[in-house]
């Protein structure tokens, strides 16, 4: 449940109220994961709810609804099956471009690959379902990081970016510049940053409130899609991401 750039703390508090109402019990790390914020942010929001009697905390450091929450009718969060909504559109995208397509979600500072539709055998990139990779190196992860505010990005990387094995990863300042470019053009690139010989483009899909909840990624051998050819994949990618967004909103 990531919150889009420009949203306020009030948006997150309302999201947290709905989540607390739906689950009944909540820990800080669970709130951080579902809301897609740093644990420190989740703790601050929960503390605010406690201060205003919307939540209580027990000796096990679990939060539960407070008396003020009983006064307001907060609708429960209705989960959307992202993979089910996305799969028909991922399949259509593969049929159009012939390359392997993944669906990616953001988990802290990592990108989790949650679904794949493989391209034709002659054009296949190895599927990555279940893999967790550094978000700042993957196209889908970068597309999702670009949705964060400057403060939110800093909260996720308080000590800067982790180095890759060959120490070739970007510095946080360089990542911020790259994310600004991603916001301008609407999609992100990964040119052999996670795997030699593989390049990718990724774009966000959104829920009915406009929040980026996942990213569609097209991956292909760099020998076939490099330079302009990689950017030419952005048009079908963005169309597919828009189709998944519409499916999620209708779900």
From TrEMBL:
<dbReference type="InterPro" id="IPR036388">
    <property type="entry name" value="WH-like_DNA-bd_sf"/>
</dbReference>
<keyword id="KW-0804">Transcription</keyword>
<dbReference type="Pfam" id="PF01614">
    <property type="entry name" value="IclR_C"/>
</dbReference>
<dbReference type="InterPro" id="IPR005471">
    <property type="entry name" value="Tscrpt_reg_IclR_N"/>
</dbReference>
<dbReference type="InterPro" id="IPR036390">
    <property type="entry name" value="WH_DNA-bd_sf"/>
</dbReference>
<dbReference type="InterPro" id="IPR029016">
    <property type="entry name" value="GAF-like_dom_sf"/>
</dbReference>
<protein>
    <submittedName>
        <fullName>IclR family transcriptional regulator</fullName>
    </submittedName>
</protein>
<keyword id="KW-0805">Transcription regulation</keyword>
<feature type="domain" description="IclR-ED">
    <location>
        <begin position="68"/>
        <end position="250"/>
    </location>
</feature>
<feature type="domain" description="HTH iclR-type">
    <location>
        <begin position="7"/>
        <end position="67"/>
    </location>
</feature>
<keyword id="KW-0238">DNA-binding</keyword>
<dbReference type="Pfam" id="PF09339">
    <property type="entry name" value="HTH_IclR"/>
</dbReference>
<dbReference type="InterPro" id="IPR050707">
    <property type="entry name" value="HTH_MetabolicPath_Reg"/>
</dbReference>
<dbReference type="InterPro" id="IPR014757">
    <property type="entry name" value="Tscrpt_reg_IclR_C"/>
</dbReference>
């Amino acid at each position: 449940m990531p919150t889009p750039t420009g949203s306020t703390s009030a948006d997150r508090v309302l999201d947290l109220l709905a989540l607390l109402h739906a689950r009944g019990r909540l820990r800080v790390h669970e709130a951080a994961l579902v809301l897609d914020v740093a644990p420190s942010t989740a703790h601050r929001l929960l503390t605010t709810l406690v201060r205003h009697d919307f939540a209580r905390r027990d000796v096990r450091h679990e939060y539960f609804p407070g008396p003020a929450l009983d006064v307001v009718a907060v609708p429960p969060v209705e989960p959307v099956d992202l993979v089910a909504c996305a799969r028909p559109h991922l399949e259509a995208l593969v049929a159009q471009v012939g390359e392997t397509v993944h669906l990616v979600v953001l988990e802290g500072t990592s990108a989790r690959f949650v679904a794949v539709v493989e391209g034709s055998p002659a054009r296949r990139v190895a599927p990555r379902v279940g893999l967790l990779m550094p978000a700042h190196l993957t196209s889908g992860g970068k597309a999702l990081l670009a949705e964060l505010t400057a403060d939110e990005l800093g909260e996720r990387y308080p000590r800067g970016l982790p180095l890759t094995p060959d120490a070739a990863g970007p510095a946080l300042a360089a990542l911020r510049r790259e994310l600004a470019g991603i916001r301008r053009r609407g999609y992100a690139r990964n040119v052999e940053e996670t795997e030699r010989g593989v390049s990718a483009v990724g774009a966000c899909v959104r829920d009915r409130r406009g929040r980026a909840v996942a990213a569609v990624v097209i991956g292909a051998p760099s020998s076939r899609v490099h330079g302009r050819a990689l950017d030419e994949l952005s048009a079908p990618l963005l169309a597919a991401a828009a189709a998944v967004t519409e499916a999620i909103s209708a779900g």
